[in-house]
Amino acid sequence: MGRLPVVALAALFGFALSAQEPVDSSSVVELREVVVKAANIIRKNDGFVLFPEADDMARSNDAVELIGNMNLPGVFLDNKTGSLSSTKKGAIAYRINGAPATEADFRAINPANIRKIEYITAPGLRYGDAGVVLNVFTARPDVGLSGNVSGRQGLNQGKGVYRASLKANYRKSEFTVYGHYEYGRFSDSRLTDVSSYQFADGSVLSRVNKSDPYVQKEDYLQASAAYSYMDDRNLFVAKLLLSGLQVPETTVHSTIQESVGDSETTELERQTLRSKDLNPQVNMYYQHEFASKGLLIFDAVLNDMTVHNDNEKFYSPGDSSGSSILTYGSGKKYSTISQLQYIQPIRKGKLSVGVKHTWNKSRNEYSGTMFSESKQTRHAFNVFAEWSGSIRRFNYTVGLQGHHVAYNQNEEMVREWNLQPQIQLSYNATRNLSFSVSGNSTMSGSVLGQSSSIVYQNNKFQYMAGNTELKPEKTYNVSFSSFLFFGSYFGDFDVSYSRKNSPLMQDIFRDGERFFTTTVNGNRADMVNVSYGSRIRLLNGKLNISPRLGYSFGNWECNSYVNRIHTWWFKGGVSYSLQKFNFSLDYYKNADALVYGFGKRKTQQSLLFGVAYRVKSLRFGIDLSQPLNEYLYTLKTASAYATGSKYFYQRGNKPMILIQVSWNFSRNNKNSHREKRINNQDSDNGML
Prior knowledge:
With 688 residues, this protein is mainly beta. The protein contains 4 helices and 41 strands. 4% of the residues lie in helices and 68% in strands. A hairpin with a 6-residue loop joins strand 18 (295-316) and strand 19 (323-346). It has a 27-stranded antiparallel β-sheet that branches.
């Protein structure tokens, strides 16, 4: 049958082949009790260490593109958005040389300066609620200047992404500035809202709101400036980050048809939306490594967030008369986060301890035909201790964290203590196959309703915002994972279950002849996620195949109704490198669960074809995105007094053509030290 088809079948269906192949003893690395072949992957207790290959680095403009081109099974680059995503539950935590970072910071890294990438698939308590961790280790030049500039512009639709970064190194210091601007203008968005309301006398009000096509607008800006100092034992980072999201004035015209019994009325509605979200942030990070290999870490973050939303609605029965409702929603939030951690390797294990304090003060105001205000002050302390070790083929991590939260909303105050255990067990069945099981629990304080929610009322309806009950949210998680890698194949399978005791939900109540829509605390939420991801590299790495698929089940309960959602998604890609050209083909089909109501969010099924050509440090590309159906967002709600369905169509099924240009440059980079690895051997002891 031949080895290539066998490998391809095993990669697609996840079979573990037992074929024996000779192993050169000079290419084997012993990592505690874990022995793997030293290709470009080293297995660790909590993940992998990967060494980028020359071809991947040559066709990458920054660290984000490099990780995408490496086709990690649980992390992939979405070619439609240009951002990294994870198939696993939880967010991606970014690190550079161990220090906290953002995806934007990864954009400012020259791939030529990357020594290795640590891909942590089972983060411990020190990483909070992260699903996976990407930690990039760089070889910093003693003196030099580097940076990159890139632009991505739609030719037939209003979409553009522009980035620029500049990095200067002098001895042990590094200065970085970064800018990112993105905009979207989509002209064929439309909305249909169908609702039924039951009055006390048994009559039913049916309401259909159907909009004309309108332009959906969005602008996003991010800028940062950072300074870092690094020597053999110390790392210091100071960063100023400014991000803002703005929705310019958007007008939506729609027709509302209402009927009660035999009577029917028609109204015209004009809705004008404006919003602005601004968030400046200051981050200070310091770590020191002792002679005993112990690591002391201090991290502090200061946030100042401002959100403002305007929503003007004008109702007209079709003549010159009418009524206008002008509402505002604004939010202001200050927060500080400070934490201290210490990590100490001890023989074949590692002890991690830490303390974290979070303080925030929030205020949301809603005004219009009626006024509403919510204030909240919150203090949270988190203390944890965690031990990681190994016994032959078994690796284990056990931890315990104590959480104390004290917060008040308006005139009410809540204090609560909670102990949250964590356990993680993994077994290395072979040098290429491992299994792991983990479980943990978390707790967070009550949060306010979204400041984008607007309070207004007319003669029939009233919409309110805010968290009416001060319930802390507790989440319990358990997951099972397996990893298999050999030769050209690298894949993982993951199953997870989580339960929350207090999800925020939307409900509808009746008071006489008026209906109230508000945010309430639900009773519980259960989520099950199953995912499979893999990468297959053939023809000496020139051909890459990366199929990924998953299934999610969600169950939300509140006093009025129960929501259940089943969703499937598939993302597959094929890329081929031919000298200076790179060809790619991706297929997307997604369905994402929503928290409010019975909902299903269905993105476009689409094909994305891309061609890129590189000349030295310049890269030119063109992408063609062909939707196979319309983007449809469906939201269904039901309660004792009302039922409703919303259908939101966006962007239609028109193809989108985008051109890309990027330039990665470096000047006078001089590096007096050599990398601390030979033949891909890593000096780590098997743990972070």
